[in-house]
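re: ur question from earlier - yeah i can do the single chain one, its not a big deal. heres the input i used so u can compare w yours
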Amino acid sequence: MATKISGPPSRQEFEAQPGRLSHFCCSLAETYGKYNLTSSRTGTVYSSSSSESLQPRASAPDDSVLTGAAASRAQIGVFAGHRDEVRARLDAISAPMAVISYGSNAEAFDGVPLNICVPLEPVAGGPETEIWYAQGKVTTGTSHGVAYAQADDAVIGYLSLAQGNETLEGTAQRAYAQILSALDEVGCPHLLRVWNYFSAINADEQGMERYQRFCVGRHRAFEHHYRNRMIERLPAASAIGTSDSELIVYFIASRNPGQHLENPRQVSAYCYPKEYGPASPTFSRATVKHWARVPALYLSGTASVVGHKSLHANDLEAQTRETISNIRALFAAIPPAQRVPNEKTARVLKIYVRNVSDMDAVRALVSSELGDSVTLLTLQGDICRRELLLEIEGVYGA
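and the output i got, formated as tokens:
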């Protein structure tokens, strides 16, 4: 018997039921596409025929999948290094947009439109600073409380909000509502990549994990703003726990859309079953953006998740290898004609570990498997699931 699929939710249902739209879309996915997922270490097969999950089609994209978005006129790049290296590089950059500094010793850089300090400590002697830059003229401003730097049709923006007396759900919804309104106002409405940082990510808050509350708030803001086009607009993203009390969000956006990608080994996050919270996490596994000269791929935070399940509890090496397998699988699904760099050509890989003592082992394995010449920015932070020990994200080609 065919599965009955109801119509898309009304605006009233958007506001009353977080997750209503994504579960409608995943009902379509369950009906029209199924696949099997295999752990690289155990060989266990996870099948979409299980009633506990709704999964999207796993077929690799054809050669047209990345051609729907117009090329940008801007060119956005990134360099990561120690402060002295970044200061030296800054002298040669004509159009800096933002500096991201990590740790308690973070410093502001003169002459840079946005200085963003993230309260995560660098470990294993790795770099602690990123600089994002463009070509041509950079303008700056503030819209709806969001500070931004704009280069032609590309924007880097930043928002920090105190939680106050509300739940994290409310703070996240406010933050994303402000960001989406600001992007509409500056004419760059398409989010490409978002970074989220907030405290006590795995702690309970009024009967719900704080990460789950964050997901509900973000989901509500996306649903309200995008309505029935939400799924196609979800950017690459990550969310990491810090020691700071504020919600910090920074992002890259553009006038024209990028192409948001999913991973054939993983259930799309927006299709996660209810065991992960009342509203699914709203992000894609990666985004490809064709800038003026070089295509860039922004890899979301990636961990030891196959299907929708976390694998290899308490096994650091196995989690690291599974994470690497997920990264390779995503790149393998992209048609070569798209000229996207391969998984060993990252400009920057950012590694988060829950336990500082784990970083040396993770760093060594990542270097051997994903390229020993890649710049690794290594940070201590809490991962969005308690059982996960590490997460890896990256920027390729930019």
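The chain is about 25% helix and 30% strand. not sure if urs matches, ping me
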